[in-house]
Each structure stands twice: as structure tokens, then as C-alpha cells.
Amino acid sequence: MVSNADRKTNTPARPVIEPRVRTITTADLRDALWRGYEDFMAQPSHLVFIALIYPIAGIVIAQLTVSYNIFPLLFPLLSGFALLGPFAAIGLYEISRRRERGMNSSWAHAFAILKSRSIGTILALGALLTGLFIAWLLSAWLIYRWLLGDVPVTSISGFLSEVLTTPNGWTMIIVGNAVGALFAITAFSMTVISFPLVLDKHVDVATAIRTSVSAVEANPRVMMIWGLIVTGLLILGCLPVLVGLVLVMPILGHATWHLYRKVVEK
Prior knowledge:
Structural class: mainly alpha
Largest sheet: none
Number of domains: 1
Number of strands: 0
Number of helices: 13
Shape: globular
Order of helices and strands: HHHHHHHHHHHHH
Radius of gyration: 21 Å
Oligomer: single chain
Helix content: 55-70%
């Protein structure tokens, strides 16, 4: 006779249903950006509570860099900080999700994710991005120490002169940007739609990352263009002194939600 415990033990695990990925076009990118802009214009007040975190943190990082004489890490800090963007924008996805469903989407609901049943998965993905960010900073520091570590940083102009006018400086620029691109491509592929997917369908970390990578593999050209758009807008948002991110960050955050909607079938 089989006991209830044996029946539970022998019950096969329910298979994980992988989200299905669509093929999209550049027209979908334009539409996602437009819808992101519409979401931003419909509920702009939340930027005071979310989007300002991004430029303020960047300004603080820049100040600490200069103050503690670690100026060589300023560019890696600012460029690597973009790796955390998908995690920083999680509240924006929630606002777009609620607005899409005709629900109350005031700025206060950006913090509703704290009560989401997927908060553990969201934090795990955020920790993964943070790990990539730290790994990038460590790599950048090692590259700097390898090529220019013996040169004392007595002034910003002296450091820039060493970087821009010496063979080692040019080598550091080339190697550093190549390594940084690898980190950026890895982070982009793993998270381009994973955070909205977790928020919407409550999938686990592995499923979210697999789906995000599949979306990139299914749409390599379009996703490359999206990555270039994001990079270009973030660069523009850094001018002047990162203040432009107050507009760029929320629009990109909302647009990412709509991109997710176009890539992953409901």
C-alpha cells in the first residue's frame, strides 16, 4: 500500500513553461520609445522619487572619485553604473504595467514591487547585476595598474595627458573599452527584458535570463540597435553633469516595459 507521503514524493514536478519570444522590428523600437514617453508624460511626478536617484548617485560617485584621488576609476564608475539601470528602473516597469491595465499608476505605486511575490527574484537579479558592476570595476582597476599604475596622479590634466598621449595610455583605452564592452553585452543580454518578465510573470532567475538571452538571439540586429539607442541616450543624459538622466532614465525605463511586451508573448 502506497502512503500519502510516497504519492507526494513520486508526483512528477510541474514543468516550467518557457515564455515564447517574438521577432520584432525597428518600428517596434520606435513605438516602445513613444509609449515610454507617453507613460512618462502621464505620470511625471514619480521621477522625483526614482529617477533622481540615478544622477544624484552619479554625482556623489564623481565627487568621491576626485576627493579620494581615485580619478582613474571615474570613467569605469560612470560607464559601469549603467549596468545597474535595469534594476534601478524596476519601479518604472510597475507604473507602466499598472497604466497598461487601467489601474491607478501614481508615483506611490512604484514602490508596490516591495510587496510583489517576485521581490526575491528581483533582488537576486539585482545582486547579479551588482556583481557584474563590481567585477567590471575590478577589471578596470587591474588594467589601469598594469599599464599606468606607476604614474602618480598629481592632477586631472596630468592624468589625462598620460592617457591620451602615451602608448600605454592608448593601450589602456583600447583594452579597457574592449573589456567594458564584454561586460555591457553580457549584462544587456541577461537583463534586457528579464526584470519586466519577472515582475509580470513571476518566473525564476534562470528562466528570466534564458528568455532575455533568447530575445537577443532571436532579434540580434534589432537588439543591437536598441542597445546603441540606450547607450546614446544615456550619454546624452549625462550632459550636463548627469542632469539629463532625470528625463532619459524614466523614458527608457517605461520604454523597456513596452519592449518586453512586444518581445514576449502574453
